[in-house]
């Protein structure tokens, strides 16, 4: 098999693919988006590159991939990088690096953020066999029993957590490992910045008289399936965005995609359902453009409208005008 590799280089003349043979010992690991080390030209040091395609054969005499660093990207990311490079006249490798995890873009391996690994404990015997051995006094140690009972209810736990919650030592676990009751597997820990955060969904504010008037005008047009445009007038902090958000929530609840709403500050609010089922709003500044952007994620569509941040405004004055 042959891998098409784009070198991690800023040089324009290297902004193309080079064919490399995939060694049989690396074949199971190398896939589209893999970060690999390859020989290039007459250089003594290996060059880093990204696998952007895999094919059966090459028309050239090729060298072999020496090693693989990691698998970060997928086919969609590679396609997006190619599109970005063509659209913005830059190297594909530069676009690929934008999609890499923070702290991993440098060429110097020692300076990269290392993946976090930990040892996880799993049961090697069936629950029925373990319970029978405990009942038949084949396992007599209270600490071993405590560890096994904890694993029955919490299989796949980190060793340090098992030692803490079951109140056992490494010697106890080593004995269970030796006797074939458990197995220890090293796995990569996915970093999740939200794991210990209590994320609460914002509740909608009560609209004041002017906001309610604007909301009703747009809401009536939505319910009547009347295609129309509305322009909201209001000073900074008057509460236009709250009208936008509640209208979007209304449309989403009815199963329709929201249209475009343009605010004076030209912000984009991307409304997505995150892993916690919360409605998360990301703010991105858009300069020199009023274009509505349509984005599709792996988990579904992003609903986008132009707006600013949510504020509470009891005395705001908002006017609405049909345009």
Overall description:
The chain is built from 8 helices and 15 strands. With 323 residues, the chain is α+β, with helices and mostly antiparallel strands. The strands form 4 sheets. It has a 6-stranded mixed β-sheet. A 4-stranded antiparallel β-sheet has the order 12-11-14-13, with no helix packed on it. Helix 7 packs parallel to helix 8. It is flat. The termini are far apart. The model is unreliable at 257-323 (pLDDT under 50).
What is this structure, in a nutshell?
By secondary structure, this protein is α+β, with helices and mostly antiparallel strands. The protein is built from eight helices and 15 strands.
Strand content: 15-25%
Q: How much helicity do the residues have?
A: 25-40%
Strand order of the largest sheet: 5-2-1-4-3-6
Shape: flat
Mean pLDDT: 75
User: How many β-strand stretches?
Assistant: 15
Give me the secondary-structure topology:
Blueprint: E1 2-7, E2 17-21, E3 34-38, E4 47-55, E5 63-64, E6 67-71, H1 75-88, H2 92-97, E7 117-123, H3 127-135, H4 142-153, E8 157-158, H5 159-165, H6 170-178, E9 182-188, H7 209-223, E10 230-233, H8 240-253, E11 267-273, E12 279-285, E13 295-297, E14 300-306, E15 319-322
Parallel strand pairs: 2-5
Antiparallel strand pairs: 1-2, 1-4, 3-4, 3-6, 7-8, 7-9, 10-15, 11-12, 11-14, 13-14
Helix pairs in contact: 7-8
Question: Which key phrases capture this entry?
Answer:
25% strand, 4-stranded antiparallel beta sheet, 323 residues, 15 strands
